[in-house]
Amino acid sequence: MKELIELVDKHLDEYISVIYPEDIFKAMKYTLSLPGKRLRPVMCLETARILGAEFEKAMPCACAIEMLHVQSLIHDDLPCMDNDDFRRGKPSNHKVFGEAIAVLAGDALISFAPQLIIEKSVGLSAEQIVRLLHEYTYFAGAYGLIAGQVVDIESEGGKFVKSPAETLNFIHLNKTAVLFRLALRCGAIIANAEESVINEFDDFAKKFGLAFQIYDDIMDEISSFEEMGKTIGKDKLSGKLTYVSLYGLDEAKDKFNHLIQECHGIMSKYESRIFDEILDKLKHRIGSR
Amino acid sequence: MKELIELVDKHLDEYISVIYPEDIFKAMKYTLSLPGKRLRPVMCLETARILGAEFEKAMPCACAIEMLHVQSLIHDDLPCMDNDDFRRGKPSNHKVFGEAIAVLAGDALISFAPQLIIEKSVGLSAEQIVRLLHEYTYFAGAYGLIAGQVVDIESEGGKFVKSPAETLNFIHLNKTAVLFRLALRCGAIIANAEESVINEFDDFAKKFGLAFQIYDDIMDEISSFEEMGKTIGKDKLSGKLTYVSLYGLDEAKDKFNHLIQECHGIMSKYESRIFDEILDKLKHRIGSR
């Protein structure tokens, strides 16, 4: 796991050179280089590997997904959105580079990620690349990530079109699970997997994404700034709709444990140490409270 | 020309359906539907046509380029950028939908545009689509449009890394010419044109883009809100670096006329009424002052 993270970090750094106008490339690299668990790229690489493709084939796509993730964090932290001054324990992008450059750095990452897939992918057919780009653009936009963010923002403002439970489920699936789905689906596509296998990994990703968001909701309730590297307790203060606020801490933990169990079940036949490690780590941090 | 604009308007409207969560799709469609000259999509379609491809083949790509253009306008108008309350004579996106949704609508358009090329293109090979997406992502991001915007913002703040003349040229080429280059290059690629022909149209687009920006700089000096549909005279008030502020009105007009002449020269062998009309209209509006 540690080696994979280092490999991802190395490539994230290498893929973007700082040229004129330097500030935009520095801003893109700044949030990208903050230490993270790199869950999405690692899971993309591992999916490709256990389905028979070499790591190298999946590296550009794995890094592109992390770039999309980081883009969403940069724009999420903006004053007009979550207005968060810290990210991964450091000042957020707009605190360092100003709002205008932070908006543009996010914009640039949305385009750079698919550009990377096109320019750096080796050994993939044009059809495979088109398929990857289709997955990327679909999940990145108004049918995925952005839809989740919109409903999240509107529900915070007290605007509900659907019931609170449906709304929360939509947010979790689109704001959080979507990037795991993208990571696993792309990994499987790179390995030329059959549709049934792609769907199996997609199913894992939906469940994992939901578990991961519940984990995040629980941690916002019981953890600290030092542990999470971002402002904690904001959800509660702002009366935000979360799994914990809607179902209570105990039911949230039960749901989380059940989803992790299901994820283990789906992944059991592949004997992946990486996936086991990721699932166990999450479970351990929640379980030890 | 009028028919082509209507055809583009119709497709821009049809390509985006308003589904849940409605606000994001409404926000995307709002700025997109404001009446415009649709120069970039029209020029993309016309390039494809005069090089032997049917309009339909180029329509998704032409509309995708207009979406990218509109995205840049939405983010450009934000309070943290140009802070402009009007666009094409109407309240700008963030004045109608709020800043958060305006940021997200722009983000969504950056992804939706290439998604459209993938989903709606008919009769193009996977290799052609990858090439179109490469052009799109390259010119949309930190190597094109965004680079131009960054240098524009920084020069307004008095930050110059290069000389004012070089800086202005970089801004014009990247902020303005880039979308015309994208439009013409993609039109030529869709028509399966040879590299030499792609380069010829690229050369036209660079010259046209520069002329168009000089036109805009001149109009900001001598025109009115009613005529342009946006706040006028801002450049002068803010002491912004423009072709007029750097070279004076007369030299700007001379340069503009010279570039339009060169554009006519490049395009003469294709006998395109559309390109002639576009060039003549710009020239007429400047010449009649």
Quickly name the level 1 CATH class of chain A. Answer: Mainly Alpha
Largest Cβ-defined interface: A-B, 50 and 50 residues
- End-to-end Cα distance of chain A, whole Å, is 24 Å
Counting H and I runs of at least 4 residues, what is the number of helices of chain A? 15
Query: Quaternary arrangement of the chains shown?
Result: homodimer
- In total, the number of strands of chain A is 2
Radius of gyration of chain A: 18 Å
Number of domains of chain A: 1
Order of neighbouring strands in the sheet with most strands of chain A: 1-2
Order of helices and strands of chain A: HHHHEEHHHHHHHHHHH
Uncertain stretches of chain A = none
Write down the CATH topology of chain A: Farnesyl Diphosphate Synthase
What class would the helix/strand composition of chain A place it in?
Answer: mainly alpha
Q: Provide mean pLDDT of chain A, rounded.
A: 93
Q: Into which percent range does the helicity of residues of chain A fall?
A: over 70%
- Beta-strand percentage of chain A? under 5%
For the sheet with most strands of chain A, the description reads: 2 strands, antiparallel
Described by the principal axes of the CA atoms, the overall outline of chain A is globular
- In CATH, what is the homologous superfamily of chain A? Farnesyl Diphosphate Synthase
If classified by CATH, what would the architecture of chain A be? Answer: Orthogonal Bundle
Strand and helix map with partners:
Two copies of one chain form a homodimer.
Chain A: H1 2-15, H2 22-33, H3 39-50, H4 55-76, E1 86-87, E2 90-91, H5 93-97, H6 99-120, H7 126-140, H8 145-156, H9 164-190, H10 195-222, H11 225-228, H12 234-237, H13 243-247, H14 249-267, H15 273-287
Antiparallel strand pairs in A: 1-2
Helix pairs in contact in A: 2-6, 3-4, 3-9, 4-6, 4-9, 6-7, 7-9, 8-9, 9-10, 10-14, 14-15
